[in-house]
């Protein structure tokens, strides 16, 4: 067993880095260590880009920031041996967070260099804001964080632009956090264009202290939108299934893996969660009654209802874009065929008519057609069918490369879809353009499953495996950046990215 | 001293590693053959009054699994007597009900595997209804790859998981 150690940001420099350089040198001399230093010492100014993932364990700054500080303090005090360093790393990191671990691979072709200055009085807050903003932006792969060093402007008048130009920052984030007597926090955050010496955006909001993380995600969304032109998805939520021993739970978490809350827990499997378009309900398949049954559960009230509990198997729920209907797969009339039911379970209507398997429906964003997996041609391939006017249209085959293409999901703009393509003995995430038919393979791992788009279409979330454990991974739709989300123990799988929060 | 810490560390790391990579204990499929049904239907006369033919290890009815080849839902010859015996029992016991649960190995899409498992359950159902068992006595469902009996990631485990289980109501 090998432990790979990656260091980021400030931990890639200074005392720890020197120690690791020493360790790496010893490894080169052939000494056996229980861990491998993957990235000994990137230069301080350069952003650290981790290598392609290999089997191993990585420790990432974003979720371990506080732990690392503890570790580096210990080292500063005693000059501990290398063993002790890793030991501390392990011990401190393991129990501290039940949240997901997040790690990032690769980066966009052009990364926007951005400096984020800690807000005035931010240190007094229970939840600091700028580290959350920085982690969000970094995770997108489109930003490179520039170290502000000792510069600490909080107001535009305090900004000495030449200093930031020389540091290579293209954008600058400054502001203040004022704790009010009623326990709320007044946030004022400005996004500045360094080259133009101009303000691009200002964010002001007064929030309860316990909602500072959510506010930080909104700030990251604003920055992302202003600098990339695309909608940010940092304020969205994801759903996934967690398996711990014999227990299965359907979890809903923030897009960065924090604030995970179980929606429902069972000792029987749960699969195929699907968000209602307004984000208030989840449809899923539960095996609690010795067979698959489709439920819809309202998140706020936890009330749930079996919307497809017919004789035989009921599975693969997909919401229509208006949230009024669900496509489901039933074996009620023989085989596995796609039907439509109302969101309250009534109004059953058959959609596909084939002698084979038709499953995994996904609605086009305009609600006019579905794509689905069918083996009507001999092997599982992806087909599209119009839903117009009650006439059950003929299905058009979309995939032709290879003998196993499954699990299609439309992109939010309806111009492409993501799916799983079997590539030899691997199962990988791919996208296909609907107009040109062009296929792009985005991953090269062993067992990828259940891909779906983020609501801005820029990221695809999917399930994969590392050394037999289920983890979630996300790949940018251009394939350049990947991130992984895992938990300390158990498996996570069956991810589904929720919709954008409704505009207030 | 360094060596001691090193050994300690290695054992600690490997302990953590085995903890996190260990396959989780099986979600146990109740052993069909040995468990007595709580209110299982009984035949009169056959095999003595005390023995339930469904659980009598000497009776073919205690065998409850039909195995399939890779990517196949054809009932192999070796399992035809088993299916025929259960069909006969169902014909003779109009009140008996069975749940046929199809299963697949772990490779591929969960939902597509659910549909493949359904085919394996349907294959057993069709074999039974062809001999005259009433449709209302049988429910064919799929567990897909979700409830593997064997937890390995090799051909032996996969073969064990490509099957349909026959469960009588009340079991």
Can you describe this structure?
- The complex is a heterodimer of chains A (504) and B (171).
- Helix content of chain A is 16%, strand content 39%.
- Chain A is built from six helices and 32 strands.
- In chain A, the strands form eight sheets. Chain A has a five-stranded antiparallel β-sheet with strand order 3-31-30-29-28. Chain A has a five-stranded mixed β-sheet with strand order 5-4-6-7-8, covered by helices on one side. In chain A, strands 11-10-9-32 form a four-stranded antiparallel β-sheet, with no helix packed on it.
- Chain A is globular and about 70 Å long.
- The termini of chain A are far apart.
- By secondary structure, chain B is α+β, with helices and mostly antiparallel strands.
- Chain B contains four helices and four strands, in the order αβαβαβαβ.
- Chain B starts with a helix and ends with a strand.
- The interface between A and B is large, with 56 and 42 residues.
């Amino acid at each position: 067993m090998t432990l790979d150690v990656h260091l980021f940001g400030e931990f890639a420099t200074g005392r720890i880095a020197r120690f690791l350089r020493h360790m790496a040198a010893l490894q080169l001399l052939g000494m056996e260590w229980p861990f491998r230093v993957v990235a000994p010492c990137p230069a301080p100014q350069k952003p650290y880009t981790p290598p392609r993932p290999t089997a191993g364990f990585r420790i990432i700054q974003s979720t371990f920031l506080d732990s690392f500080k503890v570790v580096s303090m210990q080292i500063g005090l005693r000059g501990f041996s290398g063993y002790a360093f890793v030991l501390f790393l392990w011990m401190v990191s393991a129990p501290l967070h039940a949240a997901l671990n997040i790690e990032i691979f690769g980066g966009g072709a052009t990364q926007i260099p951005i400096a984020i200055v800690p807000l005035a009085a931010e240190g007094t807050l229970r939840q600091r804001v700028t580290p959350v903003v920085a982690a969000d932006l970094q995770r997108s792969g489109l930003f490179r964080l520039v170290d502000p060093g000792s510069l600490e402007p909080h107001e535009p008048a305090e900004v000495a632009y030449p200093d930031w130009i020389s540091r290579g920052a293209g954008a600058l984030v400054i502001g203040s956090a004022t704790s009010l007597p009623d326990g709320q926090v007044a946030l004022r955050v400005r996004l500045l264009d360094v080259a133009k010496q101009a303000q691009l955006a200002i964010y002001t909001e007064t929030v309860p202290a316990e909602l500072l993380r959510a506010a930080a995600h909104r700030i990251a969304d604003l920055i992302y939108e202003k600098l990339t032109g695309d909608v940010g998805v940092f304020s969205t939520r994801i759903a996934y299934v967690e398996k711990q021993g014999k227990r299965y739970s359907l979890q809903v978490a923030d897009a960065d893996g924090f604030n995970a809350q179980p929606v429902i827990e069972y000792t029987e499997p749960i699969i195929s969660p699907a968000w209602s378009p307004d984000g208030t309900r989840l449809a899923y398949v539960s095996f609690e009654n010795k067979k698959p049954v489709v439920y819809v559960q309202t998140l706020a009230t936890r009330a749930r209802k079996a919307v497809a509990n017919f004789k035989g198997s009921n599975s693969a729920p997909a919401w229509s874009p208006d949230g009024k209907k669900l496509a489901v797969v039933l074996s009620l009339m023989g085989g596995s065929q796609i039907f439509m039911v109302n969101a309250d379970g009534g109004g059953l209507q058959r959609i596909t008519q084939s002698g084979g398997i038709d499953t995994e429906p996904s609605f086009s964003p305009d609600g006019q057609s579905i794509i689905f997996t069918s083996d009507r041609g001999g092997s599982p391939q992806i087909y599209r069918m119009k839903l117009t006017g009650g006439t059950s249209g003929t299905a058009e085959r979309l995939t032709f490369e290879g003998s196993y293409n499954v699990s299609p999901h439309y992109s939010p703009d309806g111009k492409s879809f993501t799916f799983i393509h079997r590539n030899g003995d691997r199962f990988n995430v791919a996208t296909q353009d609907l107009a040109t038919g062009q296929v792009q393979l985005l991953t090269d791992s062993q067992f990828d499953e259940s891909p779906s788009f983020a609501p801005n279409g820029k990221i695809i979330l999917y399930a994969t495996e590392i050394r037999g454990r289920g983890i979630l991974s996300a790949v940018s739709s251009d394939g350049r950046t990947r991130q992984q989300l895992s938990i300390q123990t158990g498996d996570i799988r069956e991810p589904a990215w929720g919709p954008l929060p409704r505009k207030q | 001293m360094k060596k001691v810490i090193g050994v300690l560390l290695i054992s600690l790391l490997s302990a953590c590693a085995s903890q996190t990579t260990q396959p989780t204990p099986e979600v146990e499929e109740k052993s069909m053959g040995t468990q007595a049904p709580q209110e299982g239907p009984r035949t009169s006369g056959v095999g003595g009054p005390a023995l339930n033919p469904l659980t009598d290890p000497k009776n073919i009815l205690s065998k409850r699994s039909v195995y399939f080849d890779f990517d196949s839902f054809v009932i192999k010859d070796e399992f035809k007597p088993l299916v025929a015996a259960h069909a006969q029992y169902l014909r003779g016991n109009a009140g008996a009900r069975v749940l046929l649960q199809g299963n697949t190995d772990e490779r591929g899409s969960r939902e597509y595997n659910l549909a493949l498992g359904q085919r394996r359950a349907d294959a057993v159902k069709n074999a039974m209804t062809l001999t005259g068992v009433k449709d209302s006595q049988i429910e064919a469902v799929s567990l897909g790859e979700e409830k593997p009996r064997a937890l390995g990631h090799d051909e032996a485990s996969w073969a064990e998981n490509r099957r349909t289980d026959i469960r009588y109501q009340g079991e």
